[in-house]
Amino acid sequence: MPAAPSYNWSGFYAGVNGDYGTGVTTGDLLPNGFFGNHDLSGGLFGGQIGFNYQWSHLVLGIEADLDWADLNGSEALFGIVMEEAKVKSLGTLRGRIGYAWDRVMVYGTGGFAWGRVSDGCDLCGVSTETNTLTGYTVGAGVEYGITPNLSAKAEYLYVHLDPKNYFLDQGCVAGCAMGANVNLFRLGLNWRFAPWAPALAANAAGLPAAASSAGVHDWSGLYVGVNGGYGAGKTTGDLLPDKFFGNLDVDGALFGGQIGFNYQLSHIVLGVEADLDGSGVSGSNSAGGFTNEAKIRTLGTLRGRVGYAWSDVMLYGTGGFAWGRLGDGCDACGVSEEIRALTGYAAGVGIEYGMTPNLSVRAEYLHVHLDPTGYFELAGFGCTGGCSLGANVNMVRLGLNWRLAGSPF
To answer: pTM of the prediction?
Structure first.
């Protein structure tokens, strides 16, 4: 068996990247497939955050990235540009598995992908519409450790975004779907904040860090923190009588805080956490010349957490109760915005890294389901039943926690 590598890839890192992307749209861009699908190309720039765990030559990791994108494509008729499509942003949440030869690591990667994609044809009288699309990504890369903390990488990613209906409020009643397949060629830099000491010892012994003694980092105690993130999803239920508008996509930013308590038993960490976020997650849709707008104004959860800690790194699952304040209205219809409190559930996963004995940073995914409830029953247009609204939201959040004190037990 080859000697264990001396370079340590384990730990929490953040970085920047730049890409060139090429691809093609999929689906029927406009009614009756008038223009067909076409090529996309352009640049991207953004950042990533992740964590690696090294076991001898094997490196396991998780990474989230978000890139501003300028991937454009257009179609012309009689030499005049008519229809234009643009990928405005791309993000992924991926697992990574690599093999390291000291400072050089090759890896494969794959996971969830999402993007904001717009399309329109002003000269046709079809206004530009932007939607959030989801799908998957797979790829491979090579990374080189320049210094103990700084590394450079070259990466290829294939991103598939599932088609979604466009222009439903502009006369395309069915089949006007658009998606995208994109090939990304990426260069990036990563900065690892601190070597992970248990992993260094494990590499020297040829053993996983979990074999080291527990309790190097103490997760027990009361903590408070802040968080910020991005949410995307869809409303559920019947927004107005006879499903006049239908359900719509919502997305936007969230920011708030959390309070919780952890109790550690060797590597197992049990906890409870409550959070409350202000939300800008919103969306709109039009029909018959009227525009309906929905907005999630606040989101909160009360969840249990079960984690497994390798010293200063913890992976955890979480789930529990969720509630939110959701507004909806159509001013042009004479229907004032109505705000109601909805309840449901939340479930997700996360990773947390203890930077100091008291300060930790984390990345977290939560799926929040809010059960539909009745709206507009007193609005004056006869919505006495079935005018319900709910929401399903997928949130990706980054957060900081400050542990106030150790466990009293």
So the answer is: 0.58
